[in-house]
Design a protein that fits this description.
mainly alpha, about 80% helix, about 0% strand
Length: about 260
């Protein structure tokens, strides 16, 4: 049981610092450890990310910090919420279409691995890439929708995908992108969780694991916010790149494990 707390706490600390939510760590690590079913891991990961992002976003808004760009972040969040619902339905469809849970795990591991590699390549070369400054609200909703679908289907909250999109389409600085990413993640995961209950599709899971992971998510949010204020954007970038490298290796391991 302590593994659930340790994974969620560490993932949420890093998630709060980098703005990736933590699900991109929780999902592949718990899949690797095989502590719960793939569907249960998706659900537990989503609940943990929601708890961490709720604390981080709530604290930021209550303190009236200027890191969250509401004019851009809100339409992105609306799109992400809709995408979260669609992503959950896509997960259910794929789950019911494949013959074995391992096949679903392989699909998720490969998809996450490809996205993570792309994110890693972008971040290493981002200073050479021309960025944009999208302000069109309908376009923001569409971009958010895409983010929500991918994050909900993969059970990662949003993570590295959000950061790349915020860098490329909105020219955000690292710490600003991290804060806005968590804002988007909060809405996408809230919609995803509501969909679980409305469609009566909550998988079987260990309630103790859920409590421990939510505690880890909130605790990680507290620690991560404090650390984020003490380190500069360059250090956040290095932590993010190192983390993505590890996630790629875990995804490769999970894909092979589920395939064999």
């Amino acid at each position: 049981m302590l593994a659930f707390l340790a994974v969620s706490l560490l993932a949420s600390v890093i998630g709060a610092i980098c703005g990736i939510g933590g699900g991109v760590i929780i999902k592949p690590v718990l899949d690797m450890l095989s502590l719960e079913s793939i569907a249960a891991v998706n659900f537990l990961s989503g609940c943990t990310v929601l708890s961490m992002s709720s604390y981080s976003v709530g604290k930021s808004l209550l303190k009236k910090e200027k890191t969250i760009n509401l004019s851009t972040g809100t339409p992105l969040a609306v799109g992400a919420a809709l995408g979260g619902i669609l992503g959950k339905e896509l997960f259910t469809f794929v789950k019911e279409s494949v013959s074995a849970p391992e096949t679903l795990g392989t699909i998720q591991a490969i998809a996450l691995g490809i996205i993570t590699v792309g994110t890693l390549i972008y971040n290493v070369n981002k200073n050479k890439i021309h960025t944009h400054n999208v302000r069109n609200k309908p376009m923001c909703v569409i971009i958010g929708l895409s983010l929500g679908v991918m994050s909900s289907f993969l059970g990662i909250g949003g993570g590295p995908i959000n950061l790349v999109v915020l860098f490329f389409f909105f020219s955000m600085e690292t710490k600003t992108a991290a804060a806005n990413s968590l804002y988007i993640i909060f809405f996408s995961q809230l919609a995803n969780l509501i969909t679980y209950f409305v469609t009566d599709s909550v998988p079987e899971f260990n309630p103790v694991a859920l409590v421990l992971m939510i505690c880890g998510g909130i605790g990680g949010g507290i620690i991560g916010r404090a650390l984020n204020k003490k380190i500069n954007s360059s250090a956040v970038d290095k932590l993010f790149i190192g983390l993505m490298s590890v996630i790629v290796l875990i995804c490769i391991y999970n894909a092979i494990k589920n395939f064999i």
